[in-house]
Amino acid sequence: FLVGDTRRIIREAAEKSCFICCKMGATITCCQMGCDRTFHLPCAPDGQCVTQYFGAYRSFCWEHRPQQALRPRPSQDNTCSICLDTVEDNISYKTMGCPACQDARFHRHCIQRLALHAGIGFRCPCCLNQEPFMTEMLIMGIRLSKRPPSWQSDQEVGPSDQRHGRCNAATCLCLGGREHAEADGPWQLRLCSSCAAEGTHRLCSSLGNTTCSWECSTC
């Protein structure tokens, strides 16, 4: 974008309100023709919106998001194939399935975490299908990673007890640098509660002293 285009986009976004949180500054608009719903990317999960992380990076509101077309589940086992907790009987935004075996069911947040950790080895946790499973997950808004599986990377870099020790905030405010960390206070380093592969100083992500968990933008 040119500087003028960037300023125009920022100005237009500042005038749009997020239909989920009702605050201004919504930069994402549903791609469905005729739909003018706008929202913030962090608000998307609460509004059951989908962003496709490939191609044109299209985004959809809850009404126009892509839907999975799966046959009724052959088995009566209503558990997530990843965490083994209960899932809904029907396919929905929060409950997804494998288009290959038609039987695997999993929570959206579970398959998203698996996708990020599995990297290039991402496949159905039940039938191990990679295509068309991966294509379906991309269409449904699951973000994939081109990195090797995290369990392989951990073995390559060193002992399994080695912790991430760097602030990954877009703007690190610590004068001591991104790798400076203290036991408590604003420069205490919090790791992502989902992947533990990214971290932030409390102050750099505006985390209060009572905040016990934090998730990175990827998770």
UniProtKB/TrEMBL annotation:
Residues 80-127 form the RING-type domain. SUPFAM superfamilies: FYVE/PHD zinc finger (SSF57903). PROSITE patterns: EPHD, ZF_RING_2. Residues 1-65 form the PHD-type domain. GO terms for cellular component: nucleus. It comes from the Eukaryota. Keywords: Ligase, Metal-binding, Zinc, Zinc-finger. Gene3D superfamilies: Zinc/RING finger domain, C3HC4 (zinc finger). InterPro entries: EPHD, PHD-type_Zinc_Finger, PHD_PHF7/G2E3-like, Znf_FYVE_PHD, Znf_RING, Znf_RING/FYVE/PHD. The keyword Flavoprotein does not apply. One of its GO terms (molecular function) is ligase activity. This is G2E3 ligase. It comes from Hypocryptadius cinnamomeus. The gene is G2e3_1.
